[in-house]
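Incident review: delayed structure delivery

Summary: a single-chain prediction request sat in the queue longer than the usual turnaround. Root cause was a stuck worker, restarted by the on-call engineer. No data loss occurred. The affected request and its eventual output are reproduced below so the record is complete for anyone auditing the incident later.

Affected input:
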Amino acid sequence: MLAKLSKQFRTFAKNECENSSPLYEYLANKIADDDEILKVAAVIPKGQPVPNLLLAGVQYLLSSTKDDLFNFYPSLTTTPKPIDEVYPVFKAFVLAHSDELKNLFQEKLVQTNEIRRCTYLYPMMTEIYERHQKPLALIEIGASAGLQLGMDQYNYCYNQQLHINHSNSAFVLSSENRGEPLPASITNAPVVCKRIGIDLNPIDIHNEEELRWLQALIWPEHQERRLLLHQALPILKELDLELIKGDAIKLIKEISRDVNQDAQLVVYHTHVANQIPMELRLELIEQLKEISMERPLYHCYNNLFDIQLHQDFIDQGEIESIRIMERPDGHARWFKWSNQK
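Output delivered after worker restart:
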């Protein structure tokens, strides 16, 4: 058990943290060699990404304390102490707060709401709207706080030169498109008539404590992600978001029936399906096929059966692949757009 966890932390350090979070990379490699900390992490429920939940739990507790560990986090201080001195302080903190952490592991989920992923979802939505000329009903699976449900309201900048503006806000989502040219439709925002998010544990952006958890999921060095969240909140709070608590696979059919037939249904999820058991992933596809017997829909997703980004059109139980894109950066700093087949 501990050997398997140790490997997870090493993989996390190498594949996710390298060139992204020096603090988490260092901590993850140290934790991989420390059975005492691995035993604390071992109580994390099956299906949750263990390194992410442990480190988010620590940052969450730190945000309301003045422990010395506070001084090593770029998210909490402007003058962080050297990383090579952090581990003894980190270990002491985890062991001293192990009961609180174990409670958090049962209450909280890793539901990083990476708003920048809108940069590759938004062009898909504009294309769908242009094709059908029907208002879009967005249904996001694993919506967390629903930040992506406001994608038609945000400003975008691609490759530091292509600007798409939908608001007077200073808030801009920027990303690098390393693939084919983006569709011309991106200059026209789609009309969105419904914004529904389904999550096992939705985060209420009007609740300060829940917002603190969302911020704790952002890695310490990622100041820009923290700023983007802060800038997006006023826009989101003005929107009519419908966040539903529950299992999307059980609810999706019923929810879609309540959506006006004049709307074009779009179901999407990013970096969520890898936390769903394979038999339930297959069940989701069956549910979507059943919905398509009554109305056509789009399904945009990754991490379902591979790591690529897919856009499918489903009608009368038949799935048509519209596009497949190479795996984008996890935090959407870049992606490789692919035009329709």
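Verification: The chain has a mean pLDDT of 94.
Action items: add queue-age alerting; document worker restart procedure.
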